[in-house]
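Readers of this paper often ask what the protein records in our data store actually look like. The remainder of this section carries one protein's record, kept here as part of the documentation.

:::
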Amino acid sequence: MPDVPPPRGPVRLKRRWLYLPFAVAAVIVTAYYGLWRAGAAEMEKAIAAWAREQRAAGVAVEYAALRRDGFPFFLRIHIDEPSVTSPSGYRWRGERLSLDALPYEMNKVIAWPLGEQTVTLPNAEEWRVSAGDLRVSLATDKARGWVMSASAGGVRARRATDKAEAAVDSLVFDLAPSAEEPTTLVLSLAGEGASYADGREGGPDQGAPGDGNGDGISDGNGGAIDINRVQTVTLLTRSDALQGEASARRWRDAGGALVVNGLIAEVNGAALTLAGEVTLDAAFYPAGALRAELSRPAGLGGLLRRTGALTPQEADAAAAGLAMMALASGGKIVAPVELNNGSAAIRGVKIADLPRIR
C-alpha cells in the first residue's frame, strides 16, 4: 500500500496563529501612534490659539518653533525660544519651554523650562534665572474645576547689572477654586531657603559702617533677606470680579477679601504667625486686622528698611519699639497687626506703609 502524506491544512492553520499576536501588536502600536500624533496636533493648535488670544489682549507672545517629542511614553511639545511681554513692561524669555502630557489623558499638562531664563522688569532691570528643578502643572478637576500646582528646587537668579542674587531652595504651591465656592481661590504654599543679597560690600549679621544695630541687614551696602521657612493657606474671595479695568473697585464693591487662614514665617531670625482677613478701604488701601505672634523681632528693622516698607528712620523706630514690646512680654509679642489708613501697626508701632491697590 503506497504511503499517503498527512494533510497540510492544520499545519498551515497553526502557523497563521503564530503570526496573530504580532499582527495584533502592530495594530495596537499603529493605533497608539495615531493617538499620539492626534494629541500632539491638538497641543500645537492649543498653543497657537493661546498665543493669538494673548496678542489680541495686548500681550506679546513669540516663539521660534514647536517640536514634537516623547513617543511612546510622553506627549511632549518643545517651544523653542519663547518670549512673553506684558503691556506693563514685564518680559520673560527662555531657551526652551517643554509641555508634557499623556496621549490618553490630556487633562493634565506639565510645563518645565530648560536652560537660562531672563526676566526683565518695567524699569529695565534684568534678572537671569537658572530654573533648577522647576515644574508647573495645570489639570482639570471634577470637584474644583481646575488645579494649578508648582514645585521648584535649586532656583537661582542673578541681576545682570551687578552681583545681586536671589535663591529658592524649595517651594511647593497649589492654587485652585474652592470646591464649595468656585469664585473663591485657595492657595496652599510651603517654601524653605529663600534669600536675596545685593552683593555689595558688607553683609548680613555684621551691620554696615555707622549702622550700629547689628540687625542682620546692612543698611547702606550689602543688604540681605533670608526666609528660612514660610507656610500659608490663604483664600481670595470673589475672584470673579478681578477682570478687566477697574477690577480692584469691582472686587472691593463685591465684598472681596483676602482670608489668611494661617501664615507661618521665619525671616531674618524673626518668627511670625498671622491669621485674619484683609479687604480694601474707600481709598483702595488694605484694611483689616491680622492676629499675630512675633518672636525675636530684632531682624525686622533691617528687613522693613531693605524692602522699602519704611524709611530708614521709621525702620529704626519700629525696631526699637518692637524690641521693647517683646522685652515687656517675655520675648513674644501677641497682638493684632492693624491695617488702617495706608499703614500697618502693632500696638501703635508703625511697621509698614501699605500700597494702594488699583
